[in-house]
Amino acid sequence: MLDVRRMRVLREVALQGSFSAAAETLSFTQSAVSQQIAALERETGTVLVQRNARGVRLTEAGEAVVRHAEAILARLAEAEAELEAIAGLRGGRLRMATFESAGSSLMPPAIACFRERHPQVELSLSLSDPEDSIPQLKSGEIDFALTFAASPKQDIEGVELTYLLADPMYLVLPADHPLARKRHPRLADLAEEAWIWGSPSCDCYRLISRACMGAGYDPRIAFESDDYAAVQGFVAAGVGVSLIPELGLTSVRDDIVIRSLGRETPIRHIFSAALAGGYRSAAVAAMVEILSEVAERHCEQRPALALAA
Amino acid sequence: MLDVRRMRVLREVALQGSFSAAAETLSFTQSAVSQQIAALERETGTVLVQRNARGVRLTEAGEAVVRHAEAILARLAEAEAELEAIAGLRGGRLRMATFESAGSSLMPPAIACFRERHPQVELSLSLSDPEDSIPQLKSGEIDFALTFAASPKQDIEGVELTYLLADPMYLVLPADHPLARKRHPRLADLAEEAWIWGSPSCDCYRLISRACMGAGYDPRIAFESDDYAAVQGFVAAGVGVSLIPELGLTSVRDDIVIRSLGRETPIRHIFSAALAGGYRSAAVAAMVEILSEVAERHCEQRPALALAA
DNA sequence: CAACCGCGATAAGTTCTACTCATGCTTGAC
DNA sequence: GTCAAGCATGAGTAGAACTTATCGCGGTTG
């Protein structure tokens, strides 16, 4: 393989017209240049330079090598520039995944902020629940994920979690439900209700289940859906009641009512997730930082219904 | 500047998925790979590789480097291929110059032969007399020239000449000229004639002049032209007589006659000219060889008028 | 003409780099 | 716990890439 260092020397020789001058601009001695060119000619088995009394001139082969050298050196410079851009958040990409309710609550302001601070980083976001996004993170398909779990102290092998906020769940009832008139309903009041739940693979499922068990009954499941807008719809239609996390209540139908369960409130916990291992790309670090800010702001400006809890 | 050797190692690591495997295919030890990658990371100030228990995965920066590495290595391969092509006459170019009469006599068969043997070499040919073509050769504008001179032993500083053939000059007379009836006219018979000559800068000028001086007179110049077809026209029109070299007589008007001057015949000598200095490109060497063949064939098949000399 | 530049080549010596070898540490599998 | 597979690291070595010093060549200049 041709040696790029040597090609660079040849290019300088071509540019300067003599070994000595090239040595000068390269901060080499003339001897080094002579040896490098000689080595390059030996390796290629070609005469690259015509030595004259007053300096040198390239042969056709030499010119060909210089042409390629120019292209290669340019490409090397590009590579360096790209690395700097990635490190300085003036380039590169950030591939993220979020679960749905954060996708319509926390992520929009976070992405807006990121875009404003680092407009040249290419962002992509997909929707997937933790049971999908964590494997994607581990396999390198994505760089960052928003996840949630039942416990605030979570530990996932190979993944570094950053705690963002607690997301309380609220009871959702049809507007004409008897309990809707009650300020502070209890879970025990709902033993006979039909329930609308998320899919069994979701941690929310466990959370609700555990809450009802704590209240002394095994809830009856009328319907399963992961889409909180749909769940609101089913509740409004009288199919059943449900527990929906605060982040899933960015918009609330007016034919349903939201009630806090007080200290019975099940709480899920939201985390930033990135690959563990000491290294964290600048883009991931920036996004984790921004999401922490957004989460903090979110907690400060919690809607009234949260305060009611 | 990024080190291409190291980039190549990184590329192999990316390809193989582990340092060990990359070392295997590169015939290195695992240690060498580890050190090279570490050095690359140190130089770029970036983490390029995520080390896991089971092998490694590239970071975004690492992938960027590999992308550039691919391009650069491809370009290096191209460069090598081009050098081989030039050396093996499967590419490259040959820029030539010839004086006019050889351009319509020796060069066409030579170029045809070259194109047949080495169709991938790009050929270009310009018309210029030795006083132009030799400087062009020295300055590198052309790689090869056909030249002529008054003496068969010629020496031009910095130029390597290869003798091709002797080009005798013939007396050209109007068909109705009194001397046209004579089988073997003498120069002395032409003392009173008007002459049509090439330009004074041309060696032919000296050649004719010297010949006439040898016959004891200073010839009278009626007209100057370097174009032998034009000269033939002027002779036919009765403007004067001329001496035209054999190579300028590839086509002869039928209203003029050609006569040999026997042992008084002035002779110019034709050479291949290439830059001196030990190195000669494959294309130049091939063309010199071919022109020697063409010249030899030309001498063997000399037209009858030459034999009459 | 002699002396002298300016240029490239070359020999010898030094420094640095890129390897290998040997070994240690971490992690995941059984 | 043990093992295997993987990367890291320290020490040592061979070779590459420089520098220094010197030579030879060709052109220029006093």
Features of the shown structure:
homodimer; 309 residues; alpha/beta; Arc Repressor Mutant, subunit A; D-Maltodextrin-Binding Protein, domain 2; seven-stranded mixed sheet; two-stranded antiparallel sheet; 11 helices; 43% helix; rod-shaped; DNA-binding
Overall description:
The structure is a homodimer of 309-residue chains. The first copy, chain A, is an alpha/beta fold and 309 residues long. Chain A has helices at 4-16, 19-26, 30-44, 60-87, 100-103, 107-117, 130-139, 203-214, 228-236, 282-300, 304-307; strands at residues 49-51, 56-58, 93-98, 122-127, 144-149, 159-174, 194-197, 220-224, 242-245, 256-259, 267-275. Chain A has three domains: 4-87, Orthogonal Bundle (Arc Repressor Mutant, subunit A); 93-158 and 272-302, Periplasmic binding protein-like II (D-Maltodextrin-Binding Protein, domain 2, 3-Layer(aba) Sandwich); 165-268, 3-Layer(aba) Sandwich (D-Maltodextrin-Binding Protein, domain 2). Helix content of chain A is 43%, strand content 21%. In chain A, the strands form three sheets. In chain A, strands 3, 4, 5, 6, 9, 10 and 11 form a seven-stranded mixed beta sheet that branches. The interface between A and B is large, with 41 and 41 residues. The structure holds a DNA duplex (30 and 30 nucleotides).
